[in-house]
Specification:
By secondary structure, this protein is mostly beta strands. It contains one helix and 32 strands. Strand 6 and strand 7 form a beta hairpin. The longest helix has 16 residues.
């Protein structure tokens, strides 16, 4: 190898490192356990700097015993410490860098110490998927069995939202899975999953045998409740849609990104839509056969969008010709894309070791971002 060639490789390496890229900051490394992260939040302080952060989930040991925990950082993710909790956190919401709520399978817990200590809200309902608080006292909880709750005392008591009575679907099969606000504008999204009567599809394998595939995706009831007055009134809209609206990110300038994920066999694993909150008009922003997007993010005052997910087998996973794609259960390579106009997307460089079945984006602006994966990794965006 000549000296000139070595210098060329060195220069190329430096140039690649100068581009924005995602580096692994944390990876759970235990010989006898694996970590599952269910939700993740970096917590900007009053000056907009995110030094504190939290991830909730559980560790599973070699005996398949699960241990609930949270991961905490106070230095922007350079170091993470593990703290035991009583119940596994399913989702998180933080109002600032100290005050937050954690949803579990049986209720809601609150912290005023950035996750170091938690207090159970004894009257909080079970079966929630997410909460969102407008201030320290007023908030909403959404979940299964077509239920939306409101609290005006920080979660000490909860009442059913009257507007949910307008939702015309089977209570047993309807789940509200996403809630988002920007200022006084808010959206709650849900879906109904009817009990299937269609048997699994039998497909031929390359070895001459057969395998069972899930049924092809069919339209299902989808519902959104929208408010423009901080929840004083809600307007319902519903439709029959393929897939489920699982993530919404809203920006104060009146734009939003919505994510639809397809659980059964479909032509694409997910689709991202850009939404004009002033007119209600939406248009497809991104989809790809080999990219399963699991989170979306917009930012205040900017047209920049970031989406993240994982690589799927794509067209190679097709069964039976036009049978559609099935979401795989094994982790795929983490993929992150960025756009300046929500129409054209560029893939970002990501540590090759990062894999996921679900990616979660957090951070105050496009230059200060982190991603957690359900596989127990936390990555940070490096600009230089």
């Amino acid at each position: 190898m000549t000296r000139r060639f070595i210098l060329f490789l060195f220069a190329a390496t430096l140039a690649a490192q100068a581009d924005p890229h995602w580096d692994v900051q944390f990876e759970y490394k235990q010989d006898d356990a694996v970590l599952t992260i269910n939700d993740f939040a970096m917590l900007p302080s009053a000056n907009g700097v995110a030094q504190r952060g939290i991830a909730c989930g559980y560790a599973t040991d070699h005996r398949n015993k699960q241990r609930p925990l949270v991961l905490l950082t106070i230095d922007g993710g350079a170091h993470w410490t593990e703290t035991a909790v009583h119940e596994t956190g399913l989702s998180l919401f933080f109002l600032d860098d100290t005050t937050g709520w954690m949803v579990t399978a049986t209720g809601v817990w609150q912290t005023s110490e950035a996750g170091r200590n938690w207090t159970r809200k004894v009257k909080a309902p079970g079966g929630l998927t997410r909460v969102w608080f407008l201030d320290r006292r007023r908030g909403y909880g959404i979940g299964s069995e077509r239920r939306i709750f409101e609290t005006i005392d920080g979660g000490d008591s909860w009442i059913l939202l009257p507007g949910v009575k307008e939702v015309e679907s089977d209570q047993r099969t309807t789940t509200f899975g996403e809630i988002a606000f920007t200022g006084k504008a808010g959206i709650i999204a849900g879906w109904s999953t009817p009990v299937r009567s269609t048997p699994p599809v039998t497909a031929a394998t390359g070895s001459g045998g057969t395998k069972s595939e899930p049924p092809r995706q069919t339209p299902a009831y989808s519902v959104m409740l929208q408010t423009v007055d901080a929840g004083q009134t809600w307007k319902k809209s519903d439709a029959s849609l393929f897939g489920q609206i699982t993530r919404i990110s809203m920006a104060p300038q009146g734009t939003a990104l919505g994510l639809i994920e397809f659980r059964d066999r479909f032509d694409y694993p997910s689709e991202v839509y850009s939404i004009d909150l002033h007119t209600g008009k939406s248009e497809r922003a991104f989809r790809a056969m080999d990219r399963a997007i699991t989170d979306v993010r917009l930012f205040r005052g900017l047209s920049t969008g970031v989406i993240a997910g994982y690589e799927t087998p794509g067209a190679a996973d097709r069964t039976g010709g036009a049978g559609g794609l099935s979401r795989v259960l094994v982790p795929g390579k983490l993929k992150v894309l960025i756009s300046e106009d929500l129409a054209h997307w560029d893939e970002m460089s990501v540590d090759a070791h990062a894999v996921a079945r679900r990616a979660m984006i957090s951070g105050p602006d496009p230059d200060h971002l982190w991603i957690a994966t359900d596989t127990g990794m936390i990555l940070r965006l490096v600009l230089e």
